[in-house]
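Q: Here's a chain of 399 amino acids. Please give me its 3D structure as tokens.
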Amino acid sequence: MNVSAKPLAGLKVIELGTLIAGPFASRLCAEFGAEVIKVESPDGGDPLRKWRKLYEGTSLWWFVQARNKQSLTLNLKHAEGREILKRLLADADILIENFRPGVLEKLGLGWDRIHALNPKLVMVRLSGFGQTGPMKDQPGFGAVGESMGGLRYITGFEDRPPVRTGISIGDSIAALWGVIGALMALRHREVNGGQGQVVDVALYEAVFAMMESMVPEFDVFGFIRERTGNIMPGITPSSIHTAADGRHVQIGANGDAIFKRFMLAIGREDLAQDPQLASNDGRDARRDELYGVIDRWVGGLPLDQVLETLTRAEVPASRIYSAEDMFADPQFLAREMFLQARLPDGKPFRMPGIVPKLSETPGSADWIGPELGEHNAGILAGLGYSAEQVAALKAAGAI
């Protein structure tokens, strides 16, 4: 892949993020051609380097999250470290940061200073509660954003406490909003002749924005959506069922024509022809009855037979995939959702593929997450620092 063919080629992105939200946002930019320079503390770098499963001391997650990025170590508490960052920002297009609000301001790197340095720069600020409001100074991880934004309240079973989704979904949603906002701001800059601006993303708001009809339902009817387990409240039938061999299947037969085909396929012509079940409101009123019918049918057959029947009837369904299932699935393989790469010692491994798929200017993963400070020499040389100056900066603790 020729990098110049990628849609974000020519953009320079500086990342001051750690862990998930900021680094995921800049990873998306890097996959689609932006030059991404990840600024890390010389003292260990991004903590994600040590999260979850480690291979020879480095997180496998890191190798994916930091792919296509350059690593530059800067001590931002040191004047020379801040000076280097200013030089980087002088001709950058996007700055992505996920510090607690006020941290950059204390370093003399708040929006007013940065905007004066580079009026065209777009600054993406990802934080728990945003840059304003009474909670702005409080620490807030994705789990807090998911809780405050409403996701945790409706996730789980009605007779049990709320549960998490299994991944740090709040951080990732915030990252997506950050990238969307940055691209909007860049379009304004390029098409409308505007200047740079701040894209302010709060984790709780990023989650809150995904809560569908929760707000008007409460405002108009006083209705509070509660936990409902695997079913979709008000949309029937759509749930998870367990087959005779103990494996699980998600069935979404909530379309009117789909429901009729489903009932005919499982030998329930009476339900397929029942006028009360011809539309969703009627089916939802008899939700428990219908789920009992489906549970008994699925529970009497092995999963493969269940799926074969549903496929023939054109009923949307899927077994519940583990990573092992994904690795062997022809759809994942056909869509190139596993990319071959090599760890630093040469060991081959697979990474997630690129999303989204662009027909003319696709993204790619060109290298895995770098070693800490791997690109110091090249980046600093590009800023005009000599080898002697770089050595002096390192000795002084600036890099």
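Q: Can you summarize the key feature?
A: The first helix runs from residue 21 to 31.
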